[in-house]
Structures
1.
Amino acid sequence: MKKFYITTPIYYANGQPHIGHSYTTIAADVHARYHRLRATPVLFATGTDEHGQKVAHSAQAQGMTPQEFVDNIVGSFKQMWQRLHISYDRFIRTTDPHHMAAVQHIFSQLRESGDIYLGEYEGWYCVPCETYLAEVELVDGCCPECGRPVEQVTEQAYFFRTSAYTDRLLEHIESHPDFIQPKSRRNEVLSFVKEGLRDACVSRNRMEWDIPVPGDESQSIYVWFDALINYLSQVGYPDKLDEFNRWWPPQIQIVGKDILTRFHATLWPAMLMALDLPLPDVLFAHGWWITDSGDKISKSKGNILDPYEVALELARISTATTAVAVDSLRYFLLRQITFGLDGSFSWRALLARFNADLANDLGNLLNRTLPLVERYLNGVIPEPGPGAGELSDEIDHARTKFEHELVHSDFSAALTAIWELLSSANKFLDTRGPWALHKDAKQVELEAVIYDVLDCIRVVAIMIEPFMPKVSDEIWQQLGLQSAQIEKRWEDCRALKLPSDITIAPGRPIFPRVDIKRAMDQLQAESEEQSEPTAANTISIDEFKQVELRVGTIVEAHRIPGADKLLRLMVDVGESDTRQIVAGIAQQFNPRELLDVQVIVVTNLEPATIHGVESHGMILAAGADEPEALVITDSKCPPGTIVR
RNA sequence: GGCGGAGUAGCUCAGUUGGUUAGAGCGCGCGGUUCAUACCCGCGUGGUCGGGGGUUCGAAUCCCUCCUCCGCUACCA
């Protein structure tokens, strides 16, 4: 049986939903709605990723328990999706018990099969230098720095054997040209995989707000391993196999380009191969919306746009209803730029689309046709009669093109197909001139022409439903099809399917035209008013407080072999252990001159591995590109002293 | 630093395997129409296709080189 399973990423529950989340989700919604119109069973799944240190931290900062914190965020997401007319079927949370059970189950299963192994952090260690060294860094088997012999060490962590799947993955990508889209991303992934995949560390030292490794309470399961499994657990894996088999695999998984290469296009398929499950048909990575710097009107509270705020503003400017404004924004986001590429948001572009495409071409077609029905046909849809169906070819062409473009998620091209049809309809109305036919008393011909145009509007209403569901409903209503309880079905996107003898119900213009020049002046004025006290890139005191700064004393400094810009520092920040920090200051400072220097350290930065060396913090230094001077204290302070 | 992509009309972009006068939408100008939200329809405006060199009977399209922007990646945590 045919089915359509589509996913968005599950969004990290660390902050409010923004335009990036919304863009992904709206795109997925379009696919889902389109397939529902085609009467294909659809499962459209989204959700939230709720584990990890960052969530625990943010919760603490706001004086909440992690659970309270994520519950609150989940509320915001669900509200946003409702406001943006998102028709998701499932909303999974990684804190759902059945998901957590699934993650542990899969972890155990892969550990039994040998795909997950308790890793020995294959490395060498120089005791005097306290340095971890990779095989390639050794000089004659000894420490490259002090020349003394090194010891082999094993730090325990669980690894997933990604490397074992490099060849199979490569083969799969090459034999499935549509697996990763768009093409440019596919090429990137290919070159990434060709370098060879490294085994992924899938556990961390135990944190409270994580899923524990089964049978090993000292470790937690890595959040990405946890998160990716949502795509399986939300369709019933592993205990509801009937349901699972019905939906698996996904027809398309939409992700942002930032999480494609490392996660969805490598780790994720490797996990599925290890579980012996089919891979998704398509992974589609889309681009970003950035605010247009040449257009200062973007709200000055930082550059993250709240899509609902934008819609409310559009509603205010245009006097359209909020639902129509939301749909207009949905239209704009998917029409303006090619899905997959980056684009910049500007009010001018949004308003231009609103006027030209929505108000003029679509809205006005409806608004010039309905009065004709009222005037010449007593407000009742006529019989098609002989000669009707003249727009049949145009309708078929638009439908076919739309279907073709949507296969490749080219939303913009799909919408272009609809607008070509609208253009044909407008032209048809002009050339046939029902008002002239009426004067000449050619009633039969007049009815045929009006029928054809109404029929065409009906088809357009169906075709725009995935993009603008509420607008579609409104047009349906005005055509009288709502009250007549006619359903929208994709198969009815053909000529001569409009029922007759239905009384139309004209309403106010759906898209009230905007005076763009005036609107821009107004927005500009408001924007200046608001941005007066705060410059464009300010942050609040609360945001600043999230950065934890402490005084630290450098107790050791070493060069890192093979890296000419990096130093490995051991810094005392008042904790029981000194911290290892990697700093890109080797070309400006000698290791020796740094000893006992007191610097300022960002202590709550997430750890990172740089050139194979773990770094647990950041040293502050002046200089935009190159570090020019270290930030130091002017008198001795105890290590660990808070800086603010 | 490495790999990749892109630079085409005022703006946003199409341009398939090199082939007659380089296209669309928006904007702008003119005309038509009057059913309509100063809308719609038609016509027009506008580009030495990033610079330079080369291959070819012929290049936006292939090759070389330079410039600019972007993405991924890497020793900027």
Note: Chain A has a mean pLDDT of 85.
2.
Amino acid sequence: MQTGMPKTPSKLPSRTRRRVTIADVANDLGVTKSTVSRALNGYTDIAEGTRLRISRAAERLGYRPLSHAQAIRTGRVRSLGLVLQVDNEDSARPFLADFIAGVTQAASAENWTVTIATAETERGVQETLSRLVEEHKADGFILPRTRSRDKRVEALRAQNIPFVMFGRTEDPTGCSWYDIKGEDAMRAATARLASQGHKRIAHVPGGSEYTYSKLRIDGYRDGLAAAGLSIAPALITAPAITHDAGEAATRSLLMMAEPPTAITFAVDRAALGAYRVAQDLGLRIGSDFSVIAYDGIPEGAYANPGLTTFAVNSRQAGDRLATLLIKQIRGTAPEELRELAPATLVERGSDGPPRLTPAELARCLKDIQKT
Amino acid sequence: MQTGMPKTPSKLPSRTRRRVTIADVANDLGVTKSTVSRALNGYTDIAEGTRLRISRAAERLGYRPLSHAQAIRTGRVRSLGLVLQVDNEDSARPFLADFIAGVTQAASAENWTVTIATAETERGVQETLSRLVEEHKADGFILPRTRSRDKRVEALRAQNIPFVMFGRTEDPTGCSWYDIKGEDAMRAATARLASQGHKRIAHVPGGSEYTYSKLRIDGYRDGLAAAGLSIAPALITAPAITHDAGEAATRSLLMMAEPPTAITFAVDRAALGAYRVAQDLGLRIGSDFSVIAYDGIPEGAYANPGLTTFAVNSRQAGDRLATLLIKQIRGTAPEELRELAPATLVERGSDGPPRLTPAELARCLKDIQKT
DNA sequence: CCTCTTGCCGAAACCGGTTTCGGAAACTTT
DNA sequence: AAAGTTTCCGAAACCGGTTTCGGCAAGAGG
């Protein structure tokens, strides 16, 4: 028996033809690897002529450094990490493709890649993130859906690993973020409804664990105040981010002695729940009561009447987040990497001047109940 | 001036605390790196006792091999590549989150990761793929949306790089795939409609460049034949995969002298276009004419009446694809890695026995046109 | 003309692993 | 007891890059 046989594993991929390595480039020009490496990486102690010869030779030979070979010395894998939480409920996330497109596009532009992973639970996300960190599969992370108190943030901050948040958080020390000014959107929504003549405007907030929810409530309150309307705590319902929850919230609002003639929703999906209520009760959205929401999901366009909403540009968000993260990994201080962008109003048919006063609406609803 | 200064770059991340390397584990036990490596990688020339001591020490010290450090010797980065084409039209892909969840879950289970990238055009995909291949960012690739003649397949096959397709292709040599039996679904759809009493059943196919389109047409034809119905070429429209195209296709069918009383759509989204036609003409879907489609997008549930459709399990698809790909990378022959799965019928309200005969429907439509 | 810089590059170490090779010790076999 | 096998592990090379260190040659300054 031959002794040179491997004792077990080893099943190296049968490379069709060997890669072009840095040594090949060096040999081709009669210089050393180190010279090639420095020339290609912008060191200043290389003569301009040499640099040119080297980069041309590299080009000609089709040399591509292996990022994992570089990583072993530099500690950088040139990859961004993205861990998504995919719950069963809202796994159908329409923005996702756009968001990912934005992230990968910005990464590609710098010749970086994106390592993606998913988990179902919050804990799962946490574990997956740790695994990626431990194996150093990415140089930094993009954290979507930031919570007010976010364990991911705490973990990464403690280990001094670069990250950017999509959304803001309670304690911003050492954090970078990109976020949409949801508070401005809700303020504008309320103002718009007020100027249409609505006197009682309600708000259905999003999940209370997320920062955005609080911000949008603030915006709603500010809008009321600016319009000189009083702030009735009863007009803010329990959080609702699903169809069903939105439906329930709408019903509870219309059941009030003095129901609102307009409802702002922190989230489109919840707003679509209101359509079911309207259909059920025979009310017309946009006249009997108005709805303005936030997100800009495609279903909103197909609803009848179309949902007036503040749309966020997910692709741009992904793009900016990746860009900010790369900058941070390259050394920019996190505090300098913070961006806010506005949501854009998409005017459709779900809002308009109120046909009825709150009292009239209440009476009308009572009539409907009887039949 | 100190000479030890770097001439330019070098900005190594200030590691909080040094990683545990294989050398640390070796020193801890007084053995060599090579022993640790072989023990941890299942070589047979390591005493069982030693293996145990080593793996326990590794565990205790929290040792995690860096995959990129391994990759430099083994040529494997333990990562799956996924390049998505995100066109503007259908960037909102509801399955995507599920699909990605499936892929990443299966990858994680084997301690692999997923490298994701996107491009807008077919050429862009091609280029992105090449880049990932050249830099060896992944050991193999998952190709969604396979075309009958697919350049990605040709390129990867030529370079002998592992890949699996979501969908089938014209020339299957050296190919692995996972696919849903769309042909069976369409056959079943046609059979179902025939058994409900429909005599004229149309089909709106998907994009002709994709294999699935041809297969579904085949299924539709088989279904007609099995039901003893004649196959009229005029009942197969131009391809339609969007809302608008589906609407146009539906209109053209209803405009016929002898219109179909049932339409099968290769794609849900196109089927939703039929709803607009129905609303426009005051027809009732499910009685005036029936619709059965394929895909199982969430919007189908919200349509009125709900869209009867054959749903595909995207999550499972992603899961299986990743699993097959990993097997292939580990050495299984591609030809042995082929799987087909059925779509599952979701019965909702868009189909049912025809209220009218084709002739009556035609007359009815003519009446509507006049007014 | 001699020393001091400076510019530029080669030699060699290094990064964290894997794999080859060979040899000492233990175990069989004759 | 000698010779042949096995078992198990250490030494060292290797993978493809990056970075340090030092030295030669050319130019600057005295």
Note: The two ends of chain B are 93 Å apart (CA to CA).
3.
Amino acid sequence: MGKLIENLADGGGECGLPHALEAMGERWSFMILRAAFNGLKHFEEMQASLGIARNILANRLGRLVATGILERQPCPDDRRKIEYRLTAKGESLLPAMIALRQWGERWGDGGLSNPVLCDRRDRQPVQRVRIHAQDGRALDWHDLTWVDQSELVSEAAE
Amino acid sequence: MGKLIENLADGGGECGLPHALEAMGERWSFMILRAAFNGLKHFEEMQASLGIARNILANRLGRLVATGILERQPCPDDRRKIEYRLTAKGESLLPAMIALRQWGERWGDGGLSNPVLCDRRDRQPVQRVRIHAQDGRALDWHDLTWVDQSELVSEAAE
DNA sequence: GTTTTAGGTTGCAACTAAAAACTCAATTGC
DNA sequence: GCAATTGAGTTTTTAGTTGCAACCTAAAAC
């Protein structure tokens, strides 16, 4: 338990992807993450809702806790129950998850996803997740290039 | 070969995620996609750069072609060679891949990714991938809610 | 015409996932 | 107070995947 994608180390440069995949690259990880974003907090809830095998769910939850994506916290009112809840690190996976989901929706078998992620303020659906330039323009692949770090013109980035 | 994540079907609503994961949920898929975005086109190039087993690479490339993410095209000049190149469907995975990579970079072992994805126009790095409201505001998890499709106020969306 | 190169297969060992049954403590019903 | 139920896991068994190494085939190079 704990190696998984070590050999992915580099395939043309250093990259955060292998690290991300080490945490989230297993079969059910994203589905569990989505369940967490949907407000499911307990083992049995998730098991019932996802239909995942119990041992795998236990293993994945353990791993997500180990990587700091979920927090494991016994409930005070019913001490059999354990709450899994998203940490800040877990919450910051939302753009990746939504991007994936939108892609699946766009190219999938037609059906729109439900429920829809909406701005709390006006209850309108969020935009499609895209790549944006510093000035805010949305960019497609043909608008982009890879630049070596050493060649970056520093400019108080981010 | 070919079922993988069929049971993921629904875990609290319809969702594009399972479809996305069916295409991209396997261990090496995202690494191969990244290789493709980095300009690698041939089997041997990818094999050498990723260090993946040949049978798995063959299998994954086959699957990525089957799902329409890559196109397989024999080279006219050297007919042993085969070019794998991104389709529009594959290109549209870029936001998901970059979101994942940025997450890994942010929470990973420190090292910045290299090379950096930049706006071709000014060679400045792209922004962090985020969720945006219709009016363009960047939103975090606590600014968002799930809304059932039936409750959406239609307004000539997107 | 032998050697090399590109892109794969095949066979087999090691690992990982799934389903179902089992554990074990906390809680509820009576 | 005691049996039944529930929550959160383990264990066991079976099935499917991954990875390595070796092999194969056609096209190109020499």
Note: Chain B has two domains: 14-89, 93-131.
4.
Amino acid sequence: MKNTATRDKLIDSGAQLISQQGYNATGINAVLKTCGVPKGSFYHYFSSKEDFGLAVIERFAASYDETLVVLLEDNDTPPLERLKRYFAAGREHMHECDHATGCLIGNLGQELSGQSDTFRDALNLVFQRWEQRFVRCLQDAQARGDIATHSVPEALASFILTGWEGAILRAKTLKSVEPMEHFEKILFQQVLVPAT
Amino acid sequence: MKNTATRDKLIDSGAQLISQQGYNATGINAVLKTCGVPKGSFYHYFSSKEDFGLAVIERFAASYDETLVVLLEDNDTPPLERLKRYFAAGREHMHECDHATGCLIGNLGQELSGQSDTFRDALNLVFQRWEQRFVRCLQDAQARGDIATHSVPEALASFILTGWEGAILRAKTLKSVEPMEHFEKILFQQVLVPAT
DNA sequence: AAAGCACTAGACTGACTGGTCTACTTTAAG
DNA sequence: CTTAAAGTAGACCAGTCAGTCTAGTGCTTT
């Protein structure tokens, strides 16, 4: 397996289509057509549609994790500023896709975690990695005294991730980033505040 | 259209299967098989699968709204208690379905709002109705001085709904109600609090 | 030059999809 | 009793699904 260009093309097209339509609604033939790759190549690189789906998740997670590191682990910026930057990037992405795709991992989590344990495990791992990034950022904030220490960072991280994913979902059905703004505003006004 | 028993059976089976597997993964034949209704009857009551899906949403929303009224508009119980009861009911349901189905409207919102505007509109309306129930409950709480008045109830309601939906999604991938508990705890500890 | 392997190419398969069609049974009205 | 409509019944359709198969191309190694 030397020529990874074709494999990458397949994963790229797949990620795009799955983001837009979901996993079940995306046929292999549609993926093939959008990137002009014959079926033989597909089954040369992937053993099944599930295998392909997992590869799409893996690659998205890896590439997204890079962004996350840049946004959340930049020690030159105060931790709460980093979080705000993260939310701003999310809102911008929502605009760019016309409120249609949202978060690939969130979408697949909703669609597939009741359908396949393999997918559920893979998606769960991605979520947990994200939470860890939040945890580190929140620990920084607590160490600086920017936020109170009476909530454990892990619980706060879970709160932020779930709230944000829910806001993305709501933004999709509403076709507006308003829910994302509400979430962010209340979060910074009442949750991520110094000890009183 | 007098005999609604068959129609109801179809919608019931449909709601169950769609909750478990999603809309796209649920075939009409599967619905037919689980309730022993022939195809002719299906297309007698519904003009298409989409029409059927909308009927499933409508009926679920109507029945769920009844529960919501009982839980959230009971004036004999303090408003924040009503909200806690609502969350407790949600957690219980999550246990009952073994963390597999979650919220039908949330699932379909994620799966279909990028796929069909008709579905998106229908689901959005349901969400908005739910938010209104929260708004009324929060207004009661503000009137009693149980929570501060510096947040508009509409924004708070959006915050609660999105946070809760996100927690449900996360609970599904994690197979644990822990995210729902984290959300509830932080919400009542830091957001739904009296003016300081 | 030859052999072996990574990869391309797409026709093909059986199962299944949403949806149509015709025939039949039941119910209600005149 | 007759007739029309409501509803049941399932064979059938064209299209699509994931996946298989065989044939061939082009690069690398010996």
Note: DSSP finds nine helices and no strands in chain B.
